[in-house]
Amino acid sequence: MNKQKMVTAMIECPRGYNQKFDFDPEEKRFKLSKILPAGLVFPFDFGMIPGTKGEDGDPLDIIVVSESTTFPGCLVDCRIIGALKAEQTERDGNTMRNDRFIGIPDVSQLFAGIQTLEQLPEAIVNQLEAFFKNYNEQAGKQFQVTERLSAKRAGRLLTSN
User: Fold this and answer.
1) Is 116 exposed, middle or buried (0-12, 13-18, 19+ CB in 10 A)?
2) By the 8 A CB rule, do 87 and 36 touch?
3) Which of 27, 51, 59, 153 has the most CB atoms at less than 10 Å from its CB?
4) Which pLDDT score is estimated for 57?
């Protein structure tokens, strides 16, 4: 069996929060960047993978599927189980890749047996896709998942960034 790609995620927005925080590397602190509309909250902890860079110039995004909630700034060692390969169209009409990696905390008990995206309940993956679509629509952007990547392909994509 292939060893899965391990990363350390930095949580910016905890599960259940309706606030969007961004880590400012120059200030070395978090800044409130957005309040989500009523009823829209992060379904799981969301953050970034430090030391990486996506097409948008920001660190790569990761959603951490877990039974628990952490806090902004918490570092979580995760195994990558897959990714949502996605295109995001900005308000100005420019389209860019803005993938979402999916990780499981190394310390998770409830999701300990999940090694691949295919093993994650379909309802959870559908909810993640719907959340990112709605979240971006609220910001006047379009978000479209173009492909669900396996753990192996997500690991290769991560290594290439």
Assistant:
1) middle
2) no
3) 59
4) 85
